[in-house]
Amino acid sequence: MTVRAGREFLAIPGPTTMPDEVLQAMHRPALDIYSAEMVELTESLLRDLSKLFSTKGNSYIYIANGHGAWEATLSNVLSRGDKVLVLESGRFAIGWGLAASAMGAEVEVLKGDWRRAIRPAEVEERLRRDKEHAIKAILAVQVDTASGAYNDIEAIGKAIKASGHPALFMVDTVASLGCMPFEMDAWGIDVAMSGSQKGLMTPPGLGFVAANARAQEVHKCANLRTPYWDWTERGGTEHYRKYAGTAPVHLLFALRKAIDMLTAEGLENAHLRHRLLAEAVRRAVAVWAEGQVLGFNITEPSERSNTVTTVTMNGHDPAALQRYCKEKCGVVLGTGIGDLQGQAFRIAHMGHVNAPMILGTLGVVEVALNALGIPHGKGGTEAAIEWLGESVGAD
Ligand SMILES: Cc1ncc(COP(=O)(O)O)c(C=O)c1O
Asked: What pLDDT score was predicted for residue 395?
């Protein structure tokens, strides 16, 4: 017996649920890519992406996933043999560093931990030791989607500034842009990147990069530049060059609609919605954890992301829980990946999410915990309901 008729609900951290309006925005004929309408669409999106990143710098749109956007950032500012410092807090900054290494950079990892966020003081200390300024760029993620860590990018930016080190600060916002505050200029970030398929509620396939004036200056001498990624190629007046070829017209229609929806909601409201729904998930997990099997991967509460919660399972198989949720109830949870493979599952709460989606997911997890006889504290979903009742307000 199953109770899974109807639409399957993706509670994975990307690609996320797309609003019907975004899907419908793509259901139309292509544009003439040389038309004024096309130019206006591109200009409006580049303008709005810079607003989302909170920068006066330029934004670029690539037909690429996050891995492509990583390459875009690296190829535009690095030269062969440049040293890059990767700040570990899980899987994804390491992945960015691997790309840098494959492209010819020398990569050093500032050792972190899968169970905690980056420590700004450790960054400052490492940079102070680099008296020759061999390090040319520092790579960090705002949210590590695998560990569930939230890094305090503002504090890391301050630590870099305090060290007096001139390296470019480059930040991955793939799992946070549109969901959590990000202030590229105010926090001292030189290059930021993101992707379409998580908080931005758009199909996978677009990668975004923003670069400030300092990064543009370094770009002039970077020798890893290649034509597709190149900011100079894309920065001219010819529209066709802005995508280094044919524009991904339908994905752009989708992105336009998604950003319009975020704007209509208000970015601050979207951030607050994510914070409240994330806390609802955490309230439930905290209660379940009383059974001594489930727990938070990130030990320090203030370092837990508002977009994804990584839940560890001690001595029980997360795959069985995930299978039950999907096959019996139609809710797809995220798998534990990297160091947490086979030891954790993830509940995503990013992008086009609302209270029924979150409470439904939590309720289904609780059904599965009961059905599979996995020890857990009783009343997790109830705690989430209570939290939302207290915090959403009656006015
Ligand atoms: C934080 C982060 N950065 C980068 C990536 C890579 O993005 P993509 O899978 O679109 O290449 C991901 C993917 O989940 C991610 O979560």
From this structure: 82
